[in-house]
Design brief:
Blueprint lengths: L28 E13 L4 E13 L4 E6 L2 E7 L13 H6 E7 L5 E9 L2 E9 L5 E8 L9 E8 L2 E10 L2 E8 L5 E8 L8 E9 L2 E11 L6 E9 L5 E8 L9 E8 L2 E11 L5 E9 L5 E8 L10 E8 L2 E10 L2 E8 L5 E8 L20 E8 L2 E10 L2 E8 L5 E8 L8 E8 L2 E12 L2 E10 L5 E8 L10 E7 L2 E11 L3 H6 L8 E10 L2 E9 L9 E8 L2 E12 L2 E10 L5 E8 L6 E8 L2 E11 L1
Antiparallel strand pairs: 1-2, 2-3, 3-4, 5-6, 6-7, 7-8, 8-9, 9-10, 10-11, 11-12, 12-13, 13-14, 14-15, 15-16, 16-17, 17-18, 18-19, 19-20, 20-21, 21-22, 22-23, 23-24, 24-25, 25-26, 26-27, 27-28, 28-29, 29-30, 30-31, 31-32, 32-33, 33-34, 34-35, 35-36, 36-37, 37-38, 38-39, 39-40, 40-41, 41-42
Length: 631
C-alpha cells in the first residue's frame, strides 16, 4: 500500500507533475502530487478552489492507485503497460469520472466508449477503431471538467488525429473552438477556454494558430456570470514558433472572479526581461499595481521582489512576500505582510534552502471580506512556527491562531513527522476541525481522533484507525466531503486497508432555520442518519440514498435508487428533507444501459432552487420545461 498523508481520456486535466526528470511516473513506487478541489464557502456563498496533496502508487501488478489521507479513491488497471501514464489532478475527476467500453484480445480499446460521471452513464464519448485509435465523432469533457464546468470538446477524429472543426459546448451552446488541419494541428482563429473556466468564471483566450503554434496578437475576454459584464484586453504577441515577445499581460494560473490577478512585463525571445509588475483588476476594471520585481537576461528573478503569496485566496486581502532573489534563488530574510502588518518571516541560505526560525501562514489560509477587519487580523490568522535545518522542518513546530497554540508536534531531522501530533484538518474549516494521533516516519499510525473546536473546548466527533502502511482500516467516522458549518454531515462505516467496505451511513444534525444564523456548531448527540448504502470493494452496490453534490442546510436534496457496480440503474427519486421529514419532489428512470430516459424532474443547473421537466430519449434532451415550483 501507499504512504498516507494527508481512465481513460486524452483531453482531461491530466497534467504531468514534476516527480521525475521528465515529469512522468516511470517505475513502481509511491509519488506525491498536488491537485485542485472545489468547495462551497458558506460565508460568502461562493464556490472556491484549493490545493490538496495526495499519493499515487504504481504497483508491480500494473495498478495505479490514488490515495488521500489513507483512503484509496481510485484504482486504474493498466491494460497497456507500454502506454505512458497520465495523472488526474482534479479531486472531482479522481472520484467521479470513469469510462466504460471494451478491449480486444490485443488489449486495445475498441467500439463505443461512454463517460460515467457521478454514477450516471453519459451519452458523451465516441468510437475506437480496430487499431485502438479514436475514429469519427467524439464528445470529450473539457480538461477542467467538474460540477460547474460541464463543458465538452466536440469534433471528429481520423485514425487518432483530430481534424476539421472542433467546438467547446456548454448546455448545447457553442462557446469556443477552432480548426485542426490534416496533421492534427491547430490552424487559424481559435477561441480557447482558460483552465479555470466554469459557469462563474467565464474566461476566454482568442488568437491565431499556424501549424499548432500561436502567432500574432492574443486577447483575453472575461465575462461575469451574474452581471454579464465583458472585459476585453490584449494579452500580448507571439512571434514565429509560438514564442512570446514584447509587452505581455499574463493571467495568473489561479485567475478567476475572486482572484483577478495578473502580471505585466516584457518578453524577449520567450524569456521574461526587466521589470514585471503584479496587478489586480479592481471593481472599476482598472489595473492596479500591487507587486513588482526584476528579471535578469536569462529570465530569472533577480534583486528585491514584492510578490503575491501563493496562498492568496481572496483579492480583497492581499498577502505579499518581500525579499531578495539572486538569479532565481531566494536568499536572506523574506517577510510576509498583510496590508501594513508583518504576519510571517524566515530566512533562506545561499542555496535557497530555508534555515532557522520561521513563521509561515497555513496553506489553507482564507479570509472573507464579510467576516474580518484588518485591525482584528492577528487574532484570526493561522500560522506555523518552528525551525528549518538545511531546508527541512526539524524539532517542535506549533500551530497558532493569533497567540493561542491550537496544535503542535515533532519533526525528525529528515523532515518527517514523528510521535504525537495535534494538527488541523487538511481541508475546509481547518481552524475548527482538529486531528490528534501518532506519526511514524511521516506515516499516520494507530488511533486518530477528529475533534471540533467549540467555545467550551474540543469535542470528539469522529476518528478511526490507520494500519502500519498508513491506510484507514476498520470502523471510521469521517467528515463528509461537503462538511462546513452550514453542512455538518458525517460519514460512518468501515475500511479494509484503505477501501470502503460494507454499510456506510451519512449522518447530519437536527436544526431549526434560525440555528444556521445563530450558532456555529451543535452538540454531537443530535446527529441522525439521512442517507447511505453498501460498498463492495469500494464500489457502490444495491439500494442507496445519496446526497446532492451541493447539499447544505439551505438545499437538503437527496436521491434514492439502486447502483449496479457503481452505475445508477432503474428508477431514482429526488427528495427534499428537513430533519426527519422527507418529501419526494422529482426524479426519473434510467434505461438498461444506465442512461437517462423519458421524463425527469430535475434541479435547474442555473437556478438551483427551481425545478425543470426534461424529456430524454436515451440520454438526449428532447425538451426542457421550466416549472413554477420552487423548492
Amino acid at each position: 500500500m501507499g504512504t498516507s498523508q494527508s481512465n481513460q481520456n486524452d483531453d482531461l486535466n491530466q497534467e504531468f507533475i514534476k516527480v521525475t526528470n521528465n515529469n512522468r511516473i516511470q517505475k513502481n513506487g509511491t509519488y506525491c502530487f498536488y491537485g485542485i478541489y472545489h468547495y462551497f464557502n458558506a460565508v460568502d456563498r461562493k464556490w472556491k478552489k484549493e490545493q490538496f496533496k495526495y499519493i499515487i502508487e504504481l504497483t508491480p501488478a500494473g495498478q495505479l492507485k490514488y490515495i488521500l489521507d489513507g483512503e484509496i479513491l481510485r484504482i486504474e488497471s493498466r491494460i497497456d503497460q507500454n502506454k505512458s501514464i497520465k495523472i488526474l489532478t482534479q479531486l472531482e475527476q479522481i472520484k467521479s469520472l470513469k469510462w466504460v467500453g471494451e478491449y480486444n484480445h490485443q488489449n486495445l480499446p475498441v467500439g463505443k466508449w461512454n463517460m460515467i460521471w457521478r454514477g450516471e452513464k453519459q451519452i458523451f464519448g465516441g468510437f475506437y477503431n480496430e487499431n485502438g485509435k479514436k475514429d469519427g465523432r467524439w464528445e470529450e469533457p473539457f480538461k477542467g471538467y467538474w460540477g460547474l464546468c460541464q463543458v465538452y470538446f466536440v469534433g471528429t477524429y481520423n485514425q487518432g488525429l483530430r481534424q476539421g472543426k472542433w467546438m467547446y459546448q456548454q448546455d448545447d451552446q457553442i462557446i469556443g473552438g477552432g480548426l485542426y488541419n490534416l496533421e492534427g494541428q491547430k490552424e487559424g482563429i481559435w477561441i480557447e477556454l482558460h483552465e479555470n473556466f466554469d459557469r462563474n468564471n467565464q474566461i476566454y483566450i482568442k488568437g491565431l494558430y499556424r501549424n499548432n503554434a500561436k502567432i500574432g496578437n492574443w486577447f483575453y475576454e472575461i465575462k461575469e456570470h451574474y452581471s454579464e459584464k465583458l472585459l476585453k484586453f490584449l494579452g500580448g504577441q507571439y512571434q514565429r514558433y509560438g514564442i512570446k515577445h514584447g509587452k505581455w499581460f499574463e493571467l495568473r494560473q489561479d485567475f478567476d472572479n475572486d482572484l483577478k490577478f495578473l502580471d505585466f512585463g516584457e518578453y524577449y525571445n520567450g524569456k521574461k526581461q526587466g521589470i514585471w509588475n503584479s496587478m489586480w483588476i479592481n471593481q472599476r476594471e482598472t489595473f492596479q499595481i500591487i507587486g513588482c520585481g526584476l528579471y535578469d537576461e536569462n529570465g530569472l528573478e533577480n534583486g528585491y521582489w514584492l510578490q503575491l503569496n501563493r496562498k492568496q485566496r481572496n483579492q480583497w486581502y492581499q498577502i505579499k512576500g518581500c525579499g531578495k532573489f539572486i538569479h532565481g534563488i531566494k536568499v536572506g530574510t523574506w517577510n510576509t505582510s498583510f496590508g501594513c502588518q508583518l504576519v510571517g518571516t524566515g530566512a533562506y541560505n545561499q542555496e535557497g534552502k530555508k534555515f532557522g526560525k520561521w513563521i509561515q501562514l497555513s496553506k489553507n489560509f482564507q479570509l472573507d471580506k464579510m467576516n474580518i477587519k484588518e485591525d482584528a487580523l492577528q487574532g484570526k490568522l493561522i500560522t506555523f512556527v518552528g525551525e528549518y535545518i538545511d531546508g527541512k522542518k526539524s524539532g517542535n513546530w506549533q500551530i497558532k491562531k493569533g497567540d493561542e497554540i491550537i496544535g503542535e508536534g515533532l519533526y525528525a531531522n529528515d523532515g518527517f513527522k514523528i510521535g504525537k501530533w495535534i494538527e488541523l484538518c487538511n481541508f475546509r474549516l481547518s481552524f475548527f476541525v482538529i486531528q490528534i494521533g501518532e506519526y511514524q516516519h511521516g506515516i499516520k499510525q494507530g488511533k486518530w481522533e477528529i475533534l471540533l473546536r467549540k467555545k467550551k473546548g474540543l469535542e470528539k466527533i469522529g476518528g478511526g484507525w490507520y494500519d502500519t502502511q498508513g491506510m484507514k482500516h476498520g470502523k471510521w467516522i469521517s467528515l463528509h466531503e461537503n462538511y462546513n458549518y452550514n453542512c455538518q454531515v458525517l460519514d460512518a462505516g468501515s475500511y479494509n486497508h484503505g477501501i470502503k467496505q460494507g454499510r456506510w451511513d451519512v449522518k447530519t444534525i437536527q436544526f431549526y432555520e434560525h440555528d444556521v444564523l445563530t450558532y456555529s456548531f451543535w452538540p454531537k448527540d443530535n446527529f441522525y442518519k439521512i442517507a447511505g448504502g453498501y460498498y463492495e470493494n469500494g464500489v457502490k452496490l444495491g439500494k442507496w440514498i445519496d446526497l446532492d453534490e451541493n447539499y447544505n442546510y439551505n438545499m437538503q436534496i437527496l436521491y434514492e435508487g439502486e447502483f449496479n457496480n457503481d452505475l445508477k440503474k432503474g428508477k431514482w427519486e429526488m427528495m427534499k428533507h428537513h430533519n426527519s421529514f422527507i418529501k419526494k419532489i422529482g426524479g426519473g428512470q434510467y434505461n438498461q444501459e444506465g442512461i437517462k430516459n423519458l421524463k425527469w424532474i430535475e434541479l435547474s443547473k442555473n437556478q438551483k432552487q427551481k425545478l425543470i421537466l426534461v424529456d430524454y430519449q436515451n440520454g438526449i434532451k428532447i425538451s426542457i420545461q421550466q416549472m413554477e415550483k420552487v423548492i
